[in-house]
Every structure is written in C-alpha cells, then in structure tokens.
Amino acid sequence: MLCSLPAVVAAWPVPASAVTATQLRTRISLSADVPYQGYAESNVDLNLPNLPNLSGVIALLDGNSDQYVWYRSPQQWRADVLTTAGEDDTYQTGAGTYQWNYSGNVLTQVVGNQPVRLPRAADLLPPALGVRLLRLAGQGDRFTRLPSQRVAGIDAAGLRIAPTESGTTITAAEIWADPATGLPVQVELFAVGSRAPVLTSRFLDLSITRPPLSVVTPHPGPGVDTSVASLPDATGILNGYGPVLPSQLGPIHATASPPGLPDVAVYGAGFARFAVVPLPVRAGTEVIDAAASVGASIPMRGGTAVLVRTPLLTVLLVRSPGGPVYLLTGAVTSDVLERASASLLAEEGF
Hints:
This protein is of the alpha+beta class. The protein folds into two domains: 16-230, Clam (outer membrane lipoprotein receptor (LolB), chain A), CATH 2.50.20; 234-348, Protein Transport Mog1p, Chain A (3-Layer(aba) Sandwich), CATH 3.40.1000. The chain has helices spanning 5-11, 21-29, 55-60, 126-136, 234-238, 281-292, 334-348, and strands spanning 36-45, 62-73, 76-83, 86-93, 96-101, 106-111, 142-151, 154-162, 170-177, 184-191, 199-207, 225-230, 248-249, 252-253, 265-267, 274-279, 296-300, 303-309, 314-319, 325-330. The strands form three sheets. It has a twelve-stranded mixed β-sheet with strand order 7-8-9-10-11-1-2-3-4-5-6-12. Strand 17 and strand 18 (303-309) form a beta hairpin. The longest helix has 15 residues, at 334-348. It is globular, with a radius of gyration of 22 Å.
C-alpha cells in the first residue's frame, strides 16, 4: 500500500485553478525572487551539428540534462549537473561565480562580467526558462490558460503563449507554474512542423522553501585545487570587425544592442528576433568552413553563405568579399535570415 501511494497521488484528479491567464502571467514574471530547491530534468532535441569550440553548448542543447538546484535569490544559488563522471556545479554568490569540476577536483572562481555569454545548464531550469520566455514574448502574442496538471507534487496552472509575429519557428510555449507564487515548474516549447515539444524542462522533485546559505556557498575541502579564471573581454572580441550595423535590415528594425557591444545587433520583435554578430576573420572562417560540411550553401549576390537549420534555431553565416563573416541566428525561418543577410550585404555596397 505504501509503495502504491505515489502512483495513486499522481493519478488523482488535479483541481482546476481559478487564476486567469493575465494573473498567471504576472505572477510568473515576478517569480525570480521565489526561493526553491529540487531536482529537474530537461530534454532538448535540436539536432545541432558540431561546430568549433561549441561542443559543450551543442551537448547541452541536444540531449538530456539532470540537475539538482538550490535557489535563494538571483544572486545566491547553486546548480549541480549530473554527469557520467560525477557532477559539474555552478555557484552564484555575492562574491561572484564559481565552477566546481568533480572529475578534476578543481574549484574555479570566475572573475569578470560579460554582456553576453554562451548558454549553461542552469538556463534550462523551469523557473529561469519560463521567465525568459515571458520576457521574449511580443506585445501582440496570445496568452491563454491551459488545464492544470500535477508536477512534482504541485497542482500547477498552465499558460500557453502563441506567437503572432510572422517568421518565427516557435508555434507555442507552454508554462505550468505554482498558482500561488508563479514559480514555473514545467516548460515545453513547440516548433513548426513538430507535434511533440522540441524542448521540455520539468521538476521531478520540488520544495518551495529557502535553502540554507551554507548549501549555496562553496566550501573546498582538503586536497581540492582552487584556481581563478578571468572572462575574456567580449567588447574586444565582438567589436571592431565590421562596419556599424544598420538600424534596419529590409523592413525589420533593430532593437537595443547588448550593453557594451555596439557592433552586435538584435532585429525583430517577440519570438521572431534574431541576432547579427560580426566574427573575427580567423574565427569566422573556421566556423563557416565547419558549417559548410553540415549545412547548405546559399547563393548570394555579393557574398557566400552557409545555412544550418534545426527545428527551432536557424543559423546563417555570411562572408562578404574582403569583409568579416557575419553570424545571423535566432528562432526564425531561413527566409527571414536570407532576406536580412541580402539587405546587410546591400548596405555594405556589395
């Protein structure tokens, strides 16, 4: 009887929540300060090709991730990613970020700030992912309630976001959250032409309680190696490799660039946004050559281009004659990026 209790509880009907779509949206958007601790799993199926220096990101965005998390606030949290060799931990503290590598027995303090960074496993946790999707949603997107369902013991209320902007590969984002606190407990992302979600993240175990400070503070034991790593200067890496990007590409207007990166631009609105990044000649050549082995070459007046498509993300690499390599990427269709790159080359006079 005791062994059957979890199955009985899981099958018990979930009471409908009276919270409206607008109320739930507001509560989710304000949930960043809600403390919690638990165990979550995520599954991403983007079918990304191997590209230079991105093996860690590709593994994260094309497979399963299991992680324990203890979250006190946006400035104090810890996420442990389970690996075949043990675990890799990330600590966010008032003194900065720390990375713990179990197999190497090394604790590394990461020094410096970056206006942009590559994705990490903690970005796939339901609370972080749910809030980010709400921030990306456009003003005209449709928000509707979904039937409640039980997730990790929480009778979660569902919210569906349906994009209205044309050109995006995202057909819907579905978020289930604790109706009282707005904490997202499960997130699913659907792409064009896919009936099953291409990204799923959910808690298997969850307690909406504040973990002790000692749990989110690194305490290296005897024999643990410690090191300090400085983040590279992103402003020096991503700036100065091409002309100033135009305020619009065809009919698509630019939004605010990341702070400190005037040579990087984001275009479009809602889920139909895409980024344009100028790459240094050497790094850009390596990436475009690697992409050519897995992507499709696109004939383009005034330049050469390679297109890499996945169910969700689209990447277009464009090389202008004698100029830099431009990387255009976003959850948009290939037509959007091809038209944008043609406009970009036209702006340069090619």
